[in-house]
Design a protein that fits this description.
By secondary structure, this protein is of the alpha/beta class. The protein has one domain: FAD/NAD(P)-binding domain, CATH 3.50.50.60. Helix content is 34%, strand content 25%. It is built from twelve helices and 21 strands. Strands 4, 6, 7, 8, 15, 16, 17, 18 and 19 form a nine-stranded mixed β-sheet that branches. α1 packs parallel to α8, α1 packs parallel to α12 and α5 crosses α12. The radius of gyration is 21 Å and the shape is globular.
Length: 416
């Protein structure tokens, strides 16, 4: 039976949820406080990453964050501030960063990433969005030190054990793979299972398809209040109007935690800010890569090359910190010594906030308090990669179907 569904949030997760729900015949409205032209879904590295099997919450991360706390240009920066929610989240993050919990999360992360990668392929094959950039060239983990190599080889062995394609490249093999640019690296681990896209191309095409298919998209409209009666969301009050609804999907990214508070629901979540620099000129880079010692990503996209990275915990804000942008530019130069990033390219840097759960796993599932509320948020650095999978799972949850995979690890009601 067709339902009236409101999705709060127009990022890749919200739009993917709308995509699958409208295909099931539902009347879908997407409400977003922005104009859906910026933010994490537009500034990410565009990776589809089955290889990224280790969650952000892993042994040593908190210690690393404390070590880097007073260096605002560090890759993993936690801004010192008095914030009770952040203190609680940090404690949950610490409790989640055990070897046992990481090992339990690994197969789940692999499965949902493979599921989503296949859905990206299906979306392209459907022709719904016309043609869009989607490649399966893999991902290079470039390393300059033996320490980084040994660390990544440990991950690569796990990836291989799980049946994913991975190989090791020495310097000469790397140079043959990337002959048009000089790379300062000892070698690379090549995750052949990975793919990449151009988010700034796909997002507008997905948005257009949804509008053309009858999905109502309301931009520059903020949800101010949510009315609940007898354990059911009845009404949403926005800056521009009031809406009745049968079902609500909360896919508001880093704002999801604040909206949950309006419903008396505690959803531990922190915004992890990332940055990007785009270069719209030929560089000779043909392969997506992670520059390991600099914790940053490089992606050849449609018409430009993107350098992206950093994880900054400083609350919800859109301030572009110049020192962090420069850290990306300097990191790129370290691995690509002939690369010169101009001041104009640096000044054009943009930022976006990823919603980070304490254990690095997303929140996908029904609320235990409100019968008609479904969560779809908390994806950390995997938001783009997991957009279609989350959208498909959300449609299955709302329709009461058996989900395509076991989603118990993503339970939004889980305890930390």
């Amino acid at each position: 039976m067709s339902k009236n569904i409101i999705i709060i949030g127009g990022g890749i997760v919200g739009l993917s949820s709308a995509y699958y729900l409208q295909k099931e015949g539902h009347q879908v409205t997407v409400i977003d406080k922005s104009d859906i032209t910026s933010g994490a879904s537009f500034v990410n590295a565009g990776y589809l990453t089955p290889s990224h099997i280790i969650p952000l919450a892993s042994p040593g991360k908190i210690a690393q964050g404390i070590k880097w706390m007073f260096n605002s240009s560090s890759p993993f920066y936690m801004k010192p501030r008095w914030d009770v929610d952040f203190f609680k989240w940090s404690w949950y993050f610490h409790k989640s960063s055990t070897r046992e919990k990481v090992e339990k999360a690994i197969p789940v992360i692999k499965d949902v990433n493979l599921f989503s990668r296949d859905l990206f392929e299906e979306m392209k094959a459907s022709g719904d969005m016309g043609d869009f950039h989607l490649e399966r060239r893999g991902l290079l983990m470039l390393y300059q030190t033996d320490t980084a190599y040994e660390h990544e080889m440990e991950v690569a062995r796990k990836v291989s054990y799980l049946g994913l394609e991975v190989s090791e490249l020495n310097k000469s093999q790397l140079d043959r793979l990337e002959p048009k640019i000089k790379i300062n690296a000892k070698g690379a681990i090549h995750y052949e299972c990975d793919g990449h896209t151009t988010p700034t191309e796909l997002m507008p095409k997905l948005l257009k398809y949804l509008r053309d298919s009858g999905v109502v998209v309301r931009t520059n409209e903020e949800v101010l209040d949510i009315s609940v009666k007898n354990g059911v969301v009845k009404e949403l009050v926005t800056s521009l109007g009031t809406y009745q609804t049968d079902q609500v999907v909360l896919a508001a990214g880093s704002w999801s935690g604040n909206l949950s508070k309006k419903l008396q629901i505690n959803l531990p979540l922190q915004p992890g800010k990332g940055y990007r620099i785009n270069i719209h000129r030929p560089l000779g880079i043909s392969m997506p890569a992670i520059l390991m010692e600099r914790n940053m990503a490089v992606t050849p996209m449609q018409g430009f090359t993107r350098f992206a990275g950093t994880m900054e915990f400083s609350g919800i804000n859109t301030v572009v910190r110049k020192e962090r942008v420069l850290a990306i530019a300097n990191g790129a130069k370290t691995f690509y010594p002939e690369l010169e990033i101009t001041q104009e390219e640096i000044d054009d840097a943009k930022t976006g906030m990823r919603p980070v759960s304490p254990d690095g796993l997303p929140y996908i599932g029904k609320s235990s308090k409100l019968k008609n509320l479904t969560f779809a948020t908390g994806h950390a650095m995997m938001g783009w990669s997991l957009g279609p999978a989350t959208g498909k799972l959300v449609s299955e949850i709302i329709d009461g179907k058996k989900t395509s995979m076991d989603i118990s690890a993503f339970d939004p009601n889980r305890k930390f």
